[in-house]
Design brief:
The chain is mainly alpha-helical and about 160 residues long. The protein contains six helices and no strands. It is elongated and about 55 Å long.
Length: about 160
């Protein structure tokens, strides 16, 4: 018997939620890799603070990748696990060679802006099919990310 039978969600109804989760999974995988690059390559003023913060951010992104993949599985899907597949669908673009703090922070803020908008759409979609777990997951992500945006904007203010 399928998990969906026990959790009382309809496979057809949640298929759009699964597709949105897959999109978010691809976006978070690319975002995670970008954060690793920022962590490795950051230079200049703020190095000690940002090197550590970028590590926190990529650890958080890695945790979200796992949560998203597991939610896809719970809803009857199979999460993509090849980076080549992520790159085909991700709207978050790879960046390379960023060592400047302002450039890295601006990329992170733009990525958060995109992710928050997508998470709000997914939250609404999940709510329509009574998928309260995905609603709660997206609500938690948005809450964390809005606070991080506020903190990064404050840090980056001149």
């Amino acid at each position: 018997m399928k998990t969906l039978n026990y959790i009382k969600l309809n496979e057809k109804e949640v298929s759009s939620v699964v597709a949105s989760l897959q999109q978010l999974l691809a976006d978070f995988q690319v975002y995670y890799t970008n954060l690793r690059g920022f962590h490795w390559n950051i230079k200049g003023h703020g190095f000690f603070v940002l090197h550590s913060k970028f590590e926190d951010l990529y650890n958080d992104a890695a945790e979200k990748v796992d949560e998203l993949a597991e939610r896809v599985l719970m809803l009857g899907g199979t999460p993509a696990n090849k980076f080549s597949e992520y790159l085909k669908v991700a709207k978050v673009k790879e960046v390379d060679g960023v060592s400047n703090a302002d450039e890295a922070l601006n990329n992170i803020l733009e990525t958060y802006s995109y992710l928050i908008a997508e998470e709000r759409k997914l939250l609404s979609l999940a709510s329509e099919v009574n998928d309260e777990v995905t609603v709660a997951l997206m609500s938690d992500y948005i809450k964390e990310q809005e606070k991080m945006v506020w903190m990064l904007v404050a840090y980056n203010s001149k």
